[in-house]
Write a structure and sequence with these properties.
- This protein has three domains: about 100 residues, Butyryl-Coa Dehydrogenase, subunit A, domain 1 (Orthogonal Bundle); about 120 residues, Butyryl-CoA Dehydrogenase, subunit A, domain 2, CATH 2.40.110.10; about 130 residues, Butyryl-CoA Dehydrogenase, subunit A, domain 3 (Up-down Bundle), CATH 1.20.140.10.
- The N terminus is likely disordered.
- Strands 1-4-5-8 form a four-stranded mixed beta sheet.
- The chain contains twelve helices and eight strands.
- The longest helix is centred in the C-terminal third of the chain and has 26 residues.
- It is an alpha+beta fold.
Length: about 425
Amino acid sequence: MVAGNLAVCQISRDTREPMDLTMDTPMDLRYTDAQEAFREEARSWLSARAPAPRSLPSLDTAEGFEAHRAWERTMFDDRWSVVSWPEEYGGRGVGILEWLIFEEEYWRAQAPLRVSQNGVFLLAPTLFEFGTDGQKARFLAPMASGAEIWCQGWSEPDAGSDLAGIRSRARRADNDDGWVLTGQKTWASRGAFAEWCFGLFRTDPEAERHRGLTYFLVEMGSPGVTVRPIPQIDGETGFAEIFFEEVFVPDSQVLGGVDRGWNVAMATAGSERGLSLRSPARYCEAAGRLVALYAERMVSDPERALRTADAVAQAWMDAEAYRLNTLWTATRVLDGGSVGPEASANKIHWSETDLAIHRAALALLGPEAELHGGGADAPWLDGYLFALAGPIYAGTNEIQRNVVAERMLGLPRG
């Protein structure tokens, strides 16, 4: 199969026609000998180097953030941080299928969550598509090594899923060598500790909603940037609100061209909803643990286990369906296709599968589901609380269903 990096996994932004859902050729699920050798190398390295499962502090704390950053550096030093990137940026130059294989092994090892995911999985594919050579050289390697962590500056107090409704503005600087940003962003994941932010600002306030937007790369330490951490229900700072008061940004930190930010942002959104952010390995690993939990409960509490049997089976099948669909999508990309509006269907499926897996686990655990802390079953509760956000972030599932109806099924706008 043809090797390629994840930069090709972009949403198609000019499609309003119904999608052809037919498969032209049968799917071959066999991996090549070289791919299996790659799997063994990844598995061996992770076995030797990955921290014990759940041994690092939460990445939503200052201590945990730095511990996860150090893990990113460890991966980068041995070229495992971004396996599908070109070697010049710290990758291995392998293809999409090898990346999926690595993800399978990564989640099998229950390695730490990626503190650099906003940069590596969201911004990087956008940089590969729209960035200048200078931008790639400046940002990609520090992103992959964890030296610079990125947060996303999209949502605003009055513009969440309605991204076109943002009000934050950018005006030309007086000396005409950059831009001055004003406004507020909120719900910025990793924003409490990140060094950089990528976000949309309105550069032409007279333009139509989806026009006159520009995509900026902003250093969080710039004068005029104020960060206020937002505590989660557990008290940890997984988010932040960011205030921009006359923040200067040079022209070199505009990504994709002035007033062209909507197209650039849709590329990032395609990565967020499509292949990059949520690989199927995440859910297949959780579904496997769910089946193991079911087997345990069949011994200790068979009556409760039998009541949840259908939910367990359905959750496992949904995770497997996502894996197979992702392989189909990856094959189409390798054949020159693109990830179109079906990225929205992807997002609906993985977010609801995540919830289904954790709900089934909590039903199996019964009163023990309330365990919280270091117990063996406690991660199910933590995972469930996080899964509740899945239908909201990356664009609410209600909005994604509109996209599916209009752009995949060809239904009229309501």
